[in-house]
């Protein structure tokens, strides 16, 4: 069903794209769609992309939503990058808000981010992304590593940023017209340890192609990102850090170490040491969790560095330095 609203003159037209893949997320997916439907003002269209799961697509098509929602199956390779590229192809909004299937957005998140894009130099914007813990938050988990859960982390400041975080990000369609879509060689999949950083690679590529442009972080509105119990563990934390190191290794070979690691240098030299000092200070004030957070900061950095070293070594041995982004995204009817 074509649910694109008639555009208002002078107003940026908007699309919300939600990518999903698993029936196990049915309840939170429905909350994410309902939150997208309640945006004020409303989006001109809402598109849900189902990533190679026909049963889930059929189930969604059978459901009645408050507002028209278009259900489309991913026509690109499996994974988040391919699903997003399908969303770009089938939607028509001048601005696209990408939401994760487990992120429940505030009612004004679309309006808040679109206001940022009214400045023609802003290519995209990301909202605050808050962790919504299924269980109690682990006392050892440091705010500086909330990025492992796809959330806003300590050290990320309002204003210009190198890259967006994918759970709640808004991007101009012009960016994709000029630079192509998300790199399908990166991005999460349901079946294998993924190479992430697809948002980072796209943002670096976009600012090279459109040097006048910038991406911004606007935390005055946001989304609650569900964190299941199995992600509130040391095992997942270290595994995710290691995977990030692998991803950054691939990204550094694709985009160059300068762009790929610029933010990480500040993060390692300023944000993490400050976090360790805070943890140790809390320990001295009688809070044992402070020591645990300091240990987690060191362990997370070590796991990330190990993944990065392994990724660079593998690339050197195989000489597989780059993958090819989706350069042309033809509209799909």
Task: Give a brief description.
InterPro entries: Glyco_trans_2-like, Nucleotide-diphossugar_trans. By secondary structure, the chain is of the alpha/beta class.
Structural features, described:
This protein has 333 residues and is α/β, with parallel strands linked by helices. 42% of the residues lie in helices and 18% in strands. The chain has 9 helices and 9 strands. Strands 1, 2, 3, 4, 5, 6, 7, 8 and 9 form a 9-stranded mixed beta sheet that branches. The longest helix has 31 residues, at 288-318. The radius of gyration is 20 Å and the shape is globular.
Task: List the topology elements.
Blueprint: E1 14-20, H1 26-37, E2 45-50, H2 54-61, E3 70-73, H3 80-90, E4 95-100, E5 103-105, H4 109-117, E6 122-133, E7 159-161, E8 168-172, H5 173-179, H6 198-209, E9 214-227, H7 234-255, H8 257-284, H9 288-318
Parallel strand pairs: 1-2, 1-4, 2-3, 6-9
Antiparallel strand pairs: 4-8, 5-9, 6-8, 7-9
Mean pLDDT over the residues:
89
Low-confidence stretches: 321-325
Could you say which overall geometry the principal axes of the C-alpha atoms support? globular
Tell me the number of helical segments per DSSP (H or I, 4 or more residues long): 9
Task: Tell me the span between the first and last alpha carbons.
Answer: 10 Å
The main pleated sheet reads as: 9 strands, mixed
Strand content: 15-25%
Helical residue percent band: 40-55%
The succession of helices and strands, N to C, reads EHEHEHEEHEEEHHEHHH
Structural class: alpha/beta
Number-wise, the strands total 9
Rounded to the nearest angstrom, the radius of gyration is 20 Å
């Amino acid at each position: 069903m074509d649910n694109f609203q008639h555009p208002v003159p002078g107003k940026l037209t908007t699309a919300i794209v939600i990518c999903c893949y698993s029936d196990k997320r049915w309840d939170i997916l429905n909350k994410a769609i309902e939150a997208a439907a309640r945006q004020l003002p409303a989006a001109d269209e809402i598109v849900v992309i189902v990533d190679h799961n026909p049963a889930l697509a059929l189930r969604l098509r059978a459901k009645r939503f408050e507002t028209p929602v278009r259900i489309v199956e991913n026509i690109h390779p499996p994974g988040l990058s391919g699903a997003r590229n399908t969303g770009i192809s089938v939607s028509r909004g001048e601005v696209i808000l990408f939401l994760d299937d487990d992120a429940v957005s505030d009612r004004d998140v679309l309006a808040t981010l679109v206001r940022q894009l009214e400045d023609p130099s802003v290519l995209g914007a990301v909202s605050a992304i808050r962790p919504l813990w299924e269980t109690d938050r682990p006392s050892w988990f440091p705010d500086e590593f909330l990025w492992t859960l796809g959330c806003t982390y300590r050290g990320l400041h309002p204003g210009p940023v190198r890259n967006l975080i994918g759970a709640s990000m808004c991007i101009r369609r012009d960016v994709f017209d000029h630079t192509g879509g998300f790199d399908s060689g990166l991005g999460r999949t349901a079946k294998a340890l993924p190479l992430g950083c697809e948002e980072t690679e796209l943002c670096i590529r976009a600012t090279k192609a459109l040097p006048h442009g910038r991406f911004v972080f606007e935390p005055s509105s946001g989304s609650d990102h569900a964190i299941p119990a199995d992600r509130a563990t040391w095992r997942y934390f270290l595994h995710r850090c290691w995977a990030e190191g692998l991803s950054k290794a691939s990204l550094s070979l694709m985009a160059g170490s300068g762009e790929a690691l610029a933010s990480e240098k500040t993060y390692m030299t300023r944000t993490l040491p400050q976090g360790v000092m805070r943890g140790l200070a809390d320990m001295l004030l009688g809070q044992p969790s402070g020591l645990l957070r300091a240990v987690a900061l060191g362990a997370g950095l070590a796991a990330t560095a190990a993944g990065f070293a392994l990724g660079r070594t593998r690339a050197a041995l195989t000489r597989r330095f780059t993958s090819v982004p989706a350069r042309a995204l033809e509209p799909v009817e």
